[in-house]
């Protein structure tokens, strides 16, 4: 039924594999840690967001168990749809006090934080000069704001200089 299309897909897949661009899913067989079990071996984990190693910290796990018993498993949506749980507000207040800031807002991920950051800080009179290979969250966040956008080629300082001059000329 889809013979020619299947042949096309097989050829494309073969080309992707031969170029070294094929992604294989890795299955972790151990809890999140600095070292994780993968495919029968142990690997240094440099790709997780567990930078401080708190995912397996006994106090964090104990607090998570208590919170799970009392509050259940998360909001099941973002705070601006379902509302903000008092737990989040209490943590934001503690962070504000610790940081000496007027207020704090928590985001569930860095992706979400970057998605909301630029729109709140930058207006039409501002400009963003951004590396074309920035993380997708930064690219999306920049798209959502009204600032003028200028992109330069990664590691190309001459192109960066050109974009800075264009931005300066544009005002």
Describe this structure in words.
With 171 residues, the protein is mainly alpha-helical. Among the domains are: 44 residues, no CATH class; 65 residues, no CATH class. The chain has seven helices and four strands, in the order αββααααβαβα. A two-stranded antiparallel ribbon has the order 1-2. It has a two-stranded parallel ribbon with strand order 3-4. The radius of gyration is 23 Å and the shape is extended. It starts with a helix and ends with a helix. The model has no long low-confidence stretch (mean pLDDT 91).
Provide a brief overview of the structure:
By secondary structure, the chain is mostly helical.
Main attributes of the structure:
171 residues, mainly alpha, two-stranded parallel ribbon, 7 helices, 4 strands, extended
Q: Residue-averaged pLDDT, rounded?
A: 91
The dominant shape is extended
Largest sheet strand order: 1-2
> Radius of gyration over alpha carbons?
23 Å
What topology emerges from the helices and strands here?
Elements: H1 3-18, E1 35-38, E2 41-44, H2 58-71, H3 79-82, H4 86-99, H5 110-121, E3 127-131, H6 136-144, E4 148-152, H7 157-170
Parallel strand pairs: 3-4
Antiparallel strand pairs: 1-2
Helix pairs in contact: 5-6
């Amino acid at each position: 039924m889809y013979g020619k299309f299947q042949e096309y897909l097989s050829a494309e897949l073969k080309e992707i594999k031969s170029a070294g661009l094929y992604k294989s899913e890795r299955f972790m067989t151990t809890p999140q840690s600095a070292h994780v079990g993968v495919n029968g071996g142990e690997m240094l984990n440099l790709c997780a967001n567990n930078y401080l190693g708190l995912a397996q910290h006994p106090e964090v796990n104990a607090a998570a168990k208590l919170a799970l018993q009392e509050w259940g498993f998360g909001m099941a949506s973002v705070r601006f749809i379902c509302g903000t749980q008092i737990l989040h507000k209490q943590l934001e207040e503690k962070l504000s006090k610790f940081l000496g800031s007027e207020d704090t807002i928590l985001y569930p991920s860095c992706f979400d934080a970057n998605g909301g950051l630029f729109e709140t800080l930058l207006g039409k009179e501002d400009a963003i000069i951004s590396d074309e290979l920035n993380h997708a969250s930064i690219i999306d966040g920049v798209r959502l704001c009204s600032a003028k956008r200028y992109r330069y080629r990664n590691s190309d300082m001459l192109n960066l200089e050109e974009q800075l001059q264009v931005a300066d000329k544009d005002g």
